[in-house]
């Protein structure tokens, strides 16, 4: 294991790696909850399963980076496990459009979150920045896919979107520290 020097940018980035791993894990749990309700046969379910595969790749990267850098996971992991799955299951139970609305809301916040991180990192941690840039592009694709699949036709879309986006912001803020 590498020994960190004071002021090491990789050490400074530890809270970022922690929240990103938690977020990708949360995304997998959301899609897991949706697919548990939707099954795997409908067109929407197949699109969601495809997005979930990409989230697995994102999570695997952050898992490996945490292990290499000695970053501890968030203590809120058990909460993310339950809350993510519940959010997925509830939105999917409302209907396919609400499931897609969930993805639009989550990815909107994640896109902003990754953008903020890229700005904060500058050129201090090229390995992390390259991964974030790569994953951010896929998160934006997920948002576009979900919009094209009719997310905005979900009943109560504005409130649903606002509630989920607020939840994401709270989760991001807490996972960096706890
Ligand atoms: Fe992701
Ligand atoms: Fe995503």
From TrEMBL:
EC number, as in UniProt: 1.14.99.60
Pathway terms, separated by semicolons: Cofactor biosynthesis; ubiquinone biosynthesis
Record localization: Cell membrane
Sorted UniProt keywords: Cell membrane, Iron, Membrane, Metal-binding, Monooxygenase, Oxidoreductase, Ubiquinone biosynthesis
Cofactor note text: Binds 2 iron ions per subunit.
SUPFAM superfamilies assigned to the protein according to its UniProt record, in alphabetical order: Ferritin-like
Binding site for Fe cation 2: 55, 107, 139, 142
InterPro entries per the UniProt record, alphabetical: Ferritin-like_SF, Ubq_synth_Coq7
Topology in membrane: Peripheral membrane protein
Cofactor: Fe cation
The UniProt record lists the keyword Signal: no
Catalysis performed (reactions): a 5-methoxy-2-methyl-3-(all-trans-polyprenyl)benzene-1,4-diol + AH2 + O2 = a 3-demethylubiquinol + A + H2O
PANTHER family: 5-DEMETHOXYUBIQUINONE HYDROXYLASE, MITOCHONDRIAL, COENZYME Q10 BIOSYNTHESIS PROTEIN 7
Function: Catalyzes the hydroxylation of 2-nonaprenyl-3-methyl-6-methoxy-1,4-benzoquinol during ubiquinone biosynthesis.
Family: Belongs to the COQ7 family.
Protein name: 3-demethoxyubiquinol 3-hydroxylase
Annotated source species: Sphingomonas hylomeconis
